[in-house]
Amino acid sequence: MTAKVGLSLMSINDLNMIDQSMTVMGWLTMEWGDYRLKWEKANYDDVDQIFATDRDVWKPELFIDNSLDDVSILQGGNSLFRVSNTGRVDWEHPRIFVTTCTVDTTFYPFDTQECAIGVTSSAHTVEEMKLLHLWENISVKDLVENGEWIYVTSRVETSVIKMTTGKGEKEYSLLKFIVVLTRRYDYYVTNVILPVITTSLLTILVFILPVDSGEKVSYALTVLLALAVLLTLIADSMPSTSIYVSILSVYLAYTLVMGVLAVGLTVLVLRIQSHDSEKPVPVWLHKLTRRLFARGACWKGFFCCRNRKEHLNTALKSSNGGHVGKYGYDQRRGFLMYSWSQIAEILDWFLFVLFSWSTIIVTFAFMVILKVGSTFY
Predict the structure, then answer these.
(1) pLDDT value for 330
(2) 150 and 219 inside one domain
(3) 85 neighbors 47 (Cβ within 8 angstroms)
(4) How far apart are CA 46 and CA 35, in angstroms?
(5) What is the mean pLDDT of the segment spanning 168-179?
(6) Do 363 and 248 share a structural domain?
(7) Closest C-alpha to 294, from 228, 345, 341, 257
(8) pLDDT tens, 23-44?
């Protein structure tokens, strides 16, 4: 025989990422034929249908395949069976469905999830009873709006599951009612993404904080602790699984690493700043500062906008009444030498420029991947 099953949804109660479960409320509509229940309505005062309980008529032994709280056989309870004179039996079974759902958090909070409710038989093999879908999709005519999830679409899949018993392998018919939901991300943009981005931008401000303020290290540590707290809060709302890694978690890890680097580099800048001014600066540090730090950060403009030799000649003219003569090596070298405090200042500005560009580029890339990637996933 064949039995047709349809699912109607009334509400989407919860989609729990931690427990990997979905809770919905609705009812199953089942329809099958029983030739033993046929009658001629002319012989019974034109009665074409009656109502009966599960104690009076036969019903398929069905259960929810992926249920979490109740895997028992679907019972009639107080619901009635509508029996037609043609032998067709209709049964509507209301229920709260709590089923497993593997949540993909890759594009959280712009994610779209697919969760299924599986209906199969516990007693009748596919040769004895075949399950068919009553409708092409899940009925959502009575579905109420959910505050966190938006219903997108649904579909019904038919398949066969195999079970090994003492008498060999048996096949049972399986119906999967798959509902596709997408998350409302407005709340998460305001309460998750925006705080993370703003806190990561605060990290770069440590490099323009004056050394004389004495607050550089404490400021860097405060921002680092804020990032660690945000990472902990978001991690607590995600499942403890390595099957799917959230891009947002990767971005948080990146900002945490940048915060740690900011603390270490701030300590290095303070170490250079407090160095004994009587001790000469090593030649290699001069070269590194002049060729990398100052040039890369456009220090005072001339390193990236004008030729260094031209700036040197300008400086020599200003110190010698507007004339450039033949100057010795020591005099020319003196204009290219920096003190410890100047090196610390240039390094601070270089790190500010480096962290600013890297944070902006990486943040923009991650946000584009999150939003665009979830659309095509």
Answers:
(1) 44
(2) no
(3) yes
(4) 19
(5) 88
(6) yes
(7) 345
(8) 999 999 999 998 899 989 888 8
Quote the DSSP letter at residue 18: T
Domain boundary among 184, 202, 223: 184
Whether 98 and 242 share a structural domain: no
- Tokens representing 111 are 């994610």
Contact partners, residue 55, CB within 8 Å, separation at least 6: none
Quote the domain boundaries for residue 119. Answer: 2-184
Domain total in the chain: 2
> Within the chain, what is the greatest distance between any pair of CA atoms?
129
Q: Are residues 254 and 196 in the same domain?
A: yes
Residues of the chain with pLDDT > 70: what percent?
A: 86
Instruction: Write the DSSP assignment of 295-326 as a string of letters.
Output: HHTTTTTHHHHS-HHHHHHHHHHHHTTT----
**pTM for the structure as a whole:** 0.76
Distance CA 92, CA 77 (A): 11
Assess whether 202 and 166 both reside in one domain: no
SS (H, E, C) 45-106: CCCCEEEECCCCCCCCCEEECCECCCCCCCCCCCCCEEEECCCEEEEEEEEEEEEECCCCCC
**Which pLDDT tens digit goes with each residue over 79-138?**
889 999 999 999 998 989 999 998 888 888 888 999 999 999 878 888 888 999 998 899
